[in-house]
Amino acid sequence: MARYIIKRLLLAILTVFLICFITFFLMNAIPGGPFNKEKALSEATVQALNERYNLDKPLFTQFALYMKGLFQGDLGVSLKNGRDISEIIGESFPISARLGLTAVIIALISGTIFGSIAALMRNKLPDRIIIFLSTLFTAVPSFVLATLLLLVFSIQLGWVPVWSATETNYVLPVIALAAYPMAYTTRLAKTSMLDALSQDYIRTAKAKGVSKWKIIFKHALRNSLLPVITYAGPEIAYIITGSMVVETVFTVGGIGSKFVSAITNRDYTMIMATTIFLATLMVLANVVCDLLYKVVDPRIKYD
Q1: Mean pLDDT of 226-243
Q2: Which residues, 6 or more positions from 113, have their beta carbon under 8 angstroms from its beta carbon?
Q3: 193: which strand partners?
Q4: What are phi and psi of 222, to 5 degrees?
Q5: Measuring CA to CA, how many Å separate 7 from each of 4, 19, 43, 279, 280?
């Protein structure tokens, strides 16, 4: 077990490093720079700024300097406002985390329940309604759903303001974030539950006279959760960091909207920091989910 964890952590570090490498050089391959503006700066000003942020050095030297600072816990400063990026992430991430965790909990619990109901009532009316709605929400992009929610409930009905830091105004962003993963989890849970119900140990439990609900909750549901956990890992990391488009639509000051503005402004250090932050969360979530397999199914062995 310990050997497996060490291997996974080393692989995680390598993955994050490769993401840093690819992001850095692709970002710098795009024409232009962070100090290109509609109102052109003087050549002396641009040169001074490039020297200040080491942008006048060769790319490999820039990358080495950036990674050196990163290993020391320094994410750098924003090239646009000069603020420490650690402070920016510290302010914006709690908003994304609150929205994301709420959306994840709703999506996973609701999706598992609806998927299980659809499996237990296969080819009946509840099953058809659930599959229809899950297919619909899977097909509708989050930014389209977010725009529709904003148009109907904020502009037309006026029930919810566009955005302010109140409890009520978390409802629409959470719905927009949770809709797709809930729909996907529903379909995943239904397929997994049907597979579990067709196994020999379920038929054996029925033959022994075990109650229907005990078979469902103790045997079938527990074993059907493995695919859901596999999907939950990267999905949790992705949603917690905030859907970039959804946060932009609702003008939420989360890390997703900061990432969008960083790309628009060609803020190299902010792009790198948010990308690394997201990648690290994604990798760690996958590692945690792999370890949770053992809790759900003790038969799993780690090599």
Answers
A1: 69
A2: none
A3: none
A4: -60, -45
A5: 5, 18, 50, 18, 16
Q: Residue 243 in contact with residue 256, Cβ under 8 Å?
A: yes
Query: 291: which residues sit within 8 A by CB, 6+ positions away?
Result: 5
Q: In this structure, what are the phi and psi dihedrals at residue 241, rounded to the nearest 5 degrees? A: -70, -10
Percent of the chain with pLDDT over 90: 0
Spatial distance between the Cα atoms of 277 and 16, rounded to a whole number of angstroms: 9
Half-sphere exposure in the Cβ direction for 295 (13 Å, CA):
7
Question: What residues pair up with 77 in beta bridges, in sequence order?
Answer: 84
CA angle 76, 78, 82 (to 5 degrees): 100
**Measured between alpha carbons, how far is 84 from 75 in angstroms, rounded to an integer?**
8
Buried b (16+ CB within 10 A) or exposed e, 118-130: bbbeeeeeebeeb
Residues 201 and 145 sit within 8 Å (Cβ to Cβ): no
Burial class (CB in 10 A: 0-12, 13-18, 19+), 103: buried
209 with 73: CB under 8 angstroms? no
Angle at 280 between CA 4 and CA 296, to 5 degrees: 45
Q: What is the number of alpha carbons within 13 Å of residue 196 lying toward its C-beta?
A: 23
Q: Residue written as tokens 């993401």?
A: 19
Q: Are 255 and 216 in contact (CB under 8 A)?
A: no
Prediction pTM value: 0.70
φ and ψ of 263, to 5 deg: -65, -45
Give the pLDDT score at 215: 72
pLDDT digits (tens, 9 = 90+) for 144-167: 888 888 888 877 887 776 654 444
84 - beta bridge partners? 77
